[in-house]
Design goal:
426 residues; 5-stranded parallel β-sheet; 2 domains; 22 strands; 4-stranded mixed β-sheet
Length: 426
């Protein structure tokens, strides 16, 4: 933690501060505000959504894979999906690898949905605001230091939710974590969308993968599988193909190189599709992900750590705040992806203790930086689960403020009752 000598140009206060407006942070802010807390939501980009609007176009994790598409996420996430579906901005489709039915949407319209819901709930938005440090006294997180066009400001709150994805706030505050410096993390992906695709003639997954194998000597395709899928827009297909491995996403030099490499690969995959794949002869890139997609970076150590055994044994917990049935999906450095599935129809619980960090009070985490080992994280990181966990974090934060207590002392049965009342699945 840095000691600042600069005169702060402003000081803001709030009941709850949420750092990061991705699928976890957006839902957390909305949930806390609806519980009556004053909420400030800080986002470094000029729009909300994080990975949901910058990189991807499909909510996974709402449904479990298997013979029946059982739904395991509800509440505010349902409202988001329903707004998109009801207005023709989304569609339901099977996941390429059977990881549960996905909700594919137009990410440009999702930006508006997130904003409408947040502003409607009374959330104070601070876009174009980058958190650069934390204020910690006696192992209690009191606030953050942020850089804005207005200058350096402080934002203080009795409860802060780190939804940065990379656990930036938790790491700066002194919470122990595991990262790429300890073991390899999953590879990164630059997604892109293609227009002018003849979707009626486009080949299916199996044939696409065969063509990738056949073209290996002519094109540089580090990943020989992946997906190209339909979108709500006519003639537009979205991809999840590129693979940039061996990167520490918290190292700015490595991340910069990864951004360049990801876009280079996107152009190469497009060249392959145009040359070799039926239906893509006239395809053109019309959008590259705002930033490269990061699957895994820092994972905090919380009061409990979700494990690979918990996932594959479909364990339940007394303090469960959300559920997941997604398989372990590890995007390693090789040409394929490792999948390990739960028993058909099974789900596991996500403990509240996984979002309560060790060693620091006044803080919750939400999203992919929660407390889980590498393999468990490869299952629980789906956006559906990030939204469900964010919903729980937001309600817990509001309960902590109302009860003038630490988030770690929030009564879990009360939290679970409120989650169920709003449609959450615990």
């Amino acid at each position: 933690m840095t000691t600042y000598t600069v005169q702060l140009s402003d000081r803001l206060t709030s009941d709850v501060l949420v750092v990061g407006s991705g699928s976890a942070g957006a839902v957390a802010a909305i949930a806390a505000a609806r519980q009556g807390a004053s909420v400030t939501l800080v986002e470094r980009y000029g729009f909300m959504g994080g990975i949901s609007t910058q990189v991807l176009d499909t909510f996974y994790g709402f449904y479990i894979p298997g013979t029946k598409a059982t739904k395991v996420v509800g509440g505010i996430p349902d409202e988001v999906a329903r707004s998109l579906l009801d207005n023709g901005h989304a569609l339901l489709r099977p996941n390429t690898y059977g990881a549960g039915q996905g909700i594919t949407y137009n990410p440009e319209m999702l930006k508006v949905v997130w904003e409408d819901m947040a502003v409607g709930a009374g959330v104070r938005l601070l876009l174009h605001t980058l958190v650069v440090d934390t204020i910690v006294n006696d192992d209690v997180l009191r606030g953050v230091i942020a850089a804005t066009k207005h200058g350096i400001i402080s934002i203080e709150a009795p409860v802060i939710i780190d939804a940065s994805g990379d656990a930036d706030v938790a790491a700066s505050s002194g919470v122990p974590f595991e990262s790429a410096r300890d073991q390899p993390v999953q590879s990164l992906t630059t997604t892109f969308r293609l227009a002018n695709v003849d979707t009626d003639r486009a080949v299916g997954k199996q044939r696409l993968h065969e063509l990738m194998g056949e073209a290996a000597g002519e094109y540089e395709l580090p990943r020989r599988e992946g997906s190209v899928h339909i979108t709500p827009l006519a003639g537009v297909m979205a991809t999840n193909l590129t693979r940039v491995a061996g990167v520490d996403p918290t190292d700015p030099v490595e991340l910069s190189r990864a951004e360049v490499e990801g876009r280079r690969q996107a152009v190469e995959y497009t060249r392959f599709l145009r040359d070799r794949v039926r239906g893509y002869e006239s395809a053109d890139i019309v959008a590259l992900s705002t930033q490269i997609g990061v699957r895994e970076s820092r994972r905090i150590f919380g009061e409990y750590r979700l494990t690979r055994d918990d996932v594959l044994a479909a364990r339940d917990f007394d303090d469960s705040i959300a559920r997941c049935g997604a398989p372990i999906e590890e995007h390693h450095s090789g040409g394929d992806t490792r999948w390990e599935y739960l028993p058909d129809g099974a789900t596991y619980g996500i403990p509240y203790r996984c979002i309560v960090p060790r060693d620091v009070d006044g803080l919750l985490v939400a999203g992919r930086c929660l407390s889980a080992d590498h393999d468990a994280h490869a299952s629980v990181r789906s956006m559906g689960q990030c939204m469900a966990v964010g919903q729980a974090a937001g309600i817990a934060a509001a309960l902590a403020v109302a009860g003038r207590t630490s988030p770690r002392d929030v009564p879990v049965p009360v939290l679970q009752q409120q989650l169920r009342a709003m449609g959450g699945v615990v």
